[in-house]
Amino acid sequence: MQDSSKVVVLEILRELSPDSLLDAPCGTGWLSESLGDSFPVDGIDLYANPNSNYRVVKSCDLNKGIPDDLGEYDCIVSCEGLEHFGNPELFLRSAYNHLRAGGTLLITTPNTWYPQAKLQYLFRGFYPGFPCLIGKVKPGQHMHIIPWTLPQLYLFLELTGFENIQVHYEPLSEAKHFYEKIIALPQYFYCRNKLGKSADNKNKKYWQALLTKSSLYGRHLIVTAKKP
Questions:
Q1: H-type alpha helices, 17-63
Q2: Which residues, other chains included, contact 116 with Cβ-Cβ below 8 Å and sequence gap of 6+?
Q3: Which of 40, 98, 157, 182 is the most exposed place for a label (fewest CB within 10 A)?
Q4: How far apart (Å, rounded) are the C-alpha atoms in residues 82 and 87?
Q5: Is residue 45 one of the residues assigned to a domain?
Q6: Under a CB-based contact definition with an 8 Å cutoff, are residues 84 and 142 in contact?
Q7: Structural domain boundaries enclosing 76
Q8: Among candidates 224, 200, 182, 208, which has minimal Cα distance to 13?
Q9: CA-to-CA distance for 22 and 78, rounded, in angstroms?
Q10: Structural domain total, the chain
Q11: Tell me: the pLDDT tens digits for 58-94?
Q12: CATH of the domain at 27
């Protein structure tokens, strides 16, 4: 996970100031180390490190959802995890069930909607960071298996009951080259046209999110959603 995304994640968490926080998957434990004693943080991962700074750390397969015995949290963070899960809807539903009312789910994942990703897919048939894995991956390995875009993630979050879905800006959400702006023009004008024709506020918010720089140009998505 890039440092600029970590900075944004920490800013969001400090603004939310949750009383309880779950890091799923917790990976190397960078979140707990960065937050220090700011919040009580629990962590779960397939290969959890028992010597980490988490209040509670468990080893589990998140493809099967968050363990029931962990209870409820004010905030659940899933950094660079969703692209590894073979059953993302199950994970999102379990995250929803483990959030208190008004709680926040924070997700980061690679964005395959940005211009260079489209170019690579056009010429190779595979997105950056998502190569052909036939014969190269086994269950339990940390490999990118499902590429995500904001339209796709937004839909999954709505289907699992989340509301107030927001995409957050980070410095790498800017186009690096002029040709990237050119490549993004078709989807920009398409989304803008749809926004203009939106008959209700729900659809307007959706198309507005898709028109953000983070969606059009960002290498990574940083998204929050609320449990009502």
A1: 30-35
A2: 128, 180
A3: 182
A4: 9
A5: yes
A6: yes
A7: 3-114+127-174+218-226
A8: 224
A9: 9
A10: 1
A11: 998 998 999 999 999 999 999 999 999 989 999 999 9
A12: 3.40.50.150
